[in-house]
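quick one if you have a minute, typing this from the bus. theres a chain ive been looking at and ive put its sequence and its fold in token form underneath. please have a look and point out which stretches look like helix strand or loop to you. anything you notice is useful, everything is just below.

***
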Amino acid sequence: MADPVREVTVSGPDAGPYALVDGPDGALWFTLVHQGAIGRRDADGAVTVHAVGAGPTLLAQGPDGALWFTEYGSHRIGRITVHGDVTSFAPPTAEGGPFGIAAGPDGAMWFTLSAADRIGRITMDGEITEYPVPDGFPSALAAGPDGALWFTLNRAGAIGRITTDGRTTTYPLPTPSAAPVGLTVGPDGALWFTEIGAGQIGRITTDGEITEFPLPDRQARPHALTTGPDGAVWFTEWGGNRVGRITTDGLITGYALPRPASEPHGIVQHRGALWCALETGSLARIAVPAE
């Protein structure tokens, strides 16, 4: 491809773009961790920024047409409408370190409390329930194709599963110090995840069968991942300054980012391309290669 990666500036260099989501209004929404804000980029490239609580981290589209997000710095769950109206809710466990968030199959939002080893559930009117999970720093969260929620246990080196009534199962990873972080549902109906500590991409079926794929650069520190419009899984390499692509049979390719030390974080499919957030205050647009 000619010029497969293009950068667009959306904030100052210290704002900290981190996670992205394709919004219900057709815009691209993203967190600005260090600025304490949520940004929106429309189809014409115009950027709007809304102040929220401290440390907005991950965000997801809710069943109510709003965006829900975790506030790691203020230990709250936030909600922002497409018009920029913001509300937030405090989980019962203080200083729980909310991180991952996803819409559940039950019409509620689910989130991880990484510092408290708990998974939370919040209804659209703000009612919160918490469930204990095994020790291990629960991080990213995704709704699985089996009607349960799946999550990464970063410190424990495991993948967890929780049913909507709070029953948990864990699957330890074969590689020591794997430190799984990102998690997404793949095009094949399995859960795919990044092993930031081991430099690998992992895959787990809903019955717990695990496969690991080592990256060419084991120091790449893969971080976030998503399914692309081409039927492959795409991921960011925090340490490798690249965006990677892995097919469901394990073929891996990579695309270098234009600037050094960009520190790519979140990645999402938006308008037929892949977009990732860069620590430099930009978003990178990755054109999907033709097969």
